[in-house]
Design goal:
Number of helices: 12
Number of strands: 8
Bound molecules: zinc ion
Length: 351
Amino acid sequence: MLARMVLRSRLFAVLLGLSLLACGAGDRPPALRAIAAVTAPPSSVTAPIDPAPPAPAPGAEVAIGPDLRAEDAERVLFLATDLRTDAVRRVCPASLSTEPRIRCLLALRYEDEPPSRELALTLYSETGSLAGLLPEETSEDGRGGKVHLLPARPIGANREQLAWILDAFRGYRRFLTELAALGPVTFRDRPVDLRFFYSTSKQAPSAFAVQRNLGYNLYGVVNISAEAVRDTLFHEVFHLNDGWSARALAPIHARIVARCGKKSACLAPYSPTETMMDGVYYAFAGRGAAREYAAELALRYYRESREILEGKPLSTLPFKCGPAENREAWRRIAREFFGGVDPVPECPPGS
Ligand SMILES: [Zn+2]
């Protein structure tokens, strides 16, 4: 059945056998595949001077006061630079109110790249999100090795990534607004902060979710087009919403894994997306258990529902029209996050 599907967006990754997302709420970058070394460090990198203090506890926007939010922005934007706090505050004083102070900080951070500055300011205006930097860190690569992550900015040749991200979030907003007209949607469509980085040795992880932050690799193997970035970020934003899947989807996920193990032919009808890692469908590949299955399911819900709401024919067979587990998982995720709305037409009899 799935063989007839028109696979899109991240298909290239399947064809190339490359690893994909590294993600999961609270994860550090998980299992990565060995990938050809990335090119020379981008010119956009700013070398850290201070030993990186811990990333600010980001907490939900609602849980953070105005002044704390501005100070948080100061760290997210300038943590990995040689500018000291007092130098930053001579330009963007702490006496400013929150929004002007954050806009000042963004303008200062991207002062040397006016087109990126405009995109970063627009992203903040429209979503409240910051185009920040990931502190330098060395993380486990999930295979007993290490991956070294360094801060970078979306400037120069990487500016396009910021445009794709902005476009993705605009798309989520349109989609969720349309859904919200049909039911009580609880899914939140944006992170507090984007933390840009690159990896010295691999094009992975492409992205990961931690608390209210999204780490984003400017050289990520899947971050190569507006459509791919839209899919990648929706998966990650789902993780930011998810405190549910380990309880609600784990039994379904476990049943499928017990039936199929890691055999692709068996898993194919159950996999919400075409994405694979190490030759195994990503939803069933790693230690993320039901979390990754849920995030891929959310992405499938987004793809299919968006097409229907845009008046387009589905480019795939409806996921819910597959095995019984698919229908149940689809119903549960729609009910939990999307107000029970299911724009996809009913399955034909006997499907
Ligand atoms: Zn994930």
